[in-house]
C-alpha cells in the first residue's frame, strides 16, 4: 500500500487556529467495489506545541498489485444481450432456414431506420469443417450474407412498405474485412437503411459488423424486394 506524503504547508493549514476543525471535515472515501480505495492514516506535525497533535485520514489509491477481494467474478460481469426479436420471430420475417439462417437474435430495432442483431459463431457451424480444418474462420462471404439478412429484417417490415416474402442482393460496394471472425465470437451487426425506393422495391443500406467492439466487416448493400 502506497503511503501519502503531504507537504508541511498542508499540515500547517490543518492545524491553523483559523481553519475548520477536523471533526467537522468531510469523512474520507470508503473502500468499496466501485471505488477501490484503501485508507491510509498519518499524523500531522503540530504548528503549536501547546496544542495536542491532531490526526487526519487521507484516501490513497490502492496498488494495482492488490485488487479488491470483493471484485465480481467474471461470470457475473457481463449481462446478456437484450432480446427484441427472438429466433422464432426472425423466422417469421426471413425466408431463410438451416443451414443458411445466420441471424440468432435482434437486440435493437428502430422501424424503417436500423436494426442490430447478433450471430453466435460456434464450432458446430456447418462451414467450419472446410474453412478451415486447422483454423476455423468464418468465411467473409457469409459475414456479408449475415449482414444482408439483418438488412432484410428492416426491408420486409410493413413500416417501410415491405412484406414477409423474399428479397435479393442487387449489389454490394465498399466491402472491407478488418479482422477474422472465429469460432466462439459473437458477431454484432448494425444495418442502417439509407434510402428506399418503394416504386422499384430497391433499398440501399450501410452496415458494420463488430466483434468485441472492433469492426470486423463493413460495406454498402443494395437490396431488391421480391414479389409477395
Any overview of this molecule?
By secondary structure, the protein is an alpha+beta fold. Helix content is 14%, strand content 32%. The protein has helices at 8-15, 87-93, 140-155, and strands at residues 37-43, 55-61, 105-110, 114-120, 167-177, 186-197, 202-211, 214-225. The chain has a six-stranded antiparallel β-sheet with strand order 3-4-6-7-8-5, with helices on one face. Strand 7 (202-211) and strand 8 form a beta hairpin. Mean pLDDT is 77; it is low at 1-53 and 55-63. It holds the Pfam family FabA. One of its GO terms (molecular function) is (3R)-hydroxyacyl-[acyl-carrier-protein] dehydratase activity. Keywords: Cytoplasm, Lipid A biosynthesis, Lipid biosynthesis, Lipid metabolism, Lyase. It comes from Salvia splendens.
- Measured as a percent range, the helix fraction is 10-25%
| Total DSSP helices | 3
The secondary structure category is alpha+beta
How far apart lie the N and C ends?
70 Å
What letter string, H or E per element, gives the SSE order?
HEEHEEHEEEE
Could you give the order of strands across the largest sheet? Answer: 3-4-6-7-8-5
Average the pLDDT over all residues and give the rounded result. Answer: 77
- Taking pLDDT < 50 over at least 5 consecutive residues as the criterion, the unreliable ranges are 1-53, 55-63
Approximately what portion of the residues adopt beta-strand conformation? 25-35%
**Rg over CA atoms:** 30 Å
Number of E-type strands: 8
Largest sheet: 6 strands, antiparallel
Shape: globular
Amino acid at each position: 500500500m502506497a503511503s501519502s506524503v503531504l507537504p508541511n504547508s498542508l499540515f500547517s493549514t490543518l492545524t491553523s487556529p483559523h481553519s475548520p476543525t477536523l471533526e467537522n471535515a468531510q469523512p474520507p472515501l470508503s473502500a468499496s467495489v466501485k471505488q477501490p480505495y484503501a485508507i491510509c492514516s498519518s499524523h500531522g506535525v503540530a504548528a503549536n506545541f501547546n496544542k495536542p497533535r491532531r490526526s487526519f485520514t487521507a484516501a490513497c489509491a490502492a496498488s494495482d498489485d492488490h485488487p479488491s477481494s470483493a471484485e465480481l467474478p467474471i461470470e457475473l460481469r457481463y449481462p446478456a444481450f437484450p432480446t427484441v426479436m427472438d429466433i422464432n420471430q426472425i423466422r417469421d420475417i426471413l425466408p431463410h432456414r438451416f443451414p443458411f439462417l445466420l441471424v440468432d437474435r435482434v437486440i435493437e430495432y428502430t422501424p424503417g431506420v436500423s436494426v442490430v442483431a447478433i450471430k453466435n459463431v460456434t464450432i458446430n457451424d456447418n462451414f467450419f469443417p472446410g474453412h478451415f480444418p486447422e483454423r476455423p474462420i468464418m468465411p467473409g462471404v457469409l459475414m456479408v450474407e449475415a449482414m444482408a439478412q439483418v438488412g432484410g429484417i428492416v426491408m420486409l417490415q410493413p413500416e417501410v412498405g415491405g412484406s414477409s416474402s423474399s428479397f435479393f442482393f442487387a449489389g454490394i460496394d465498399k466491402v472491407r474485412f478488418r479482422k477474422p471472425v472465429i469460432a466462439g465470437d459473437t458477431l454484432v451487426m448494425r444495418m442502417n437503411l439509407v434510402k428506399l425506393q418503394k416504386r422499384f422495391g430497391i433499398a440501399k443500406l450501410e452496415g458494420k459488423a463488430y466483434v468485441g467492439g472492433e469492426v470486423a466487416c463493413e460495406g454498402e448493400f443494395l437490396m431488391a424486394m421480391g414479389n409477395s
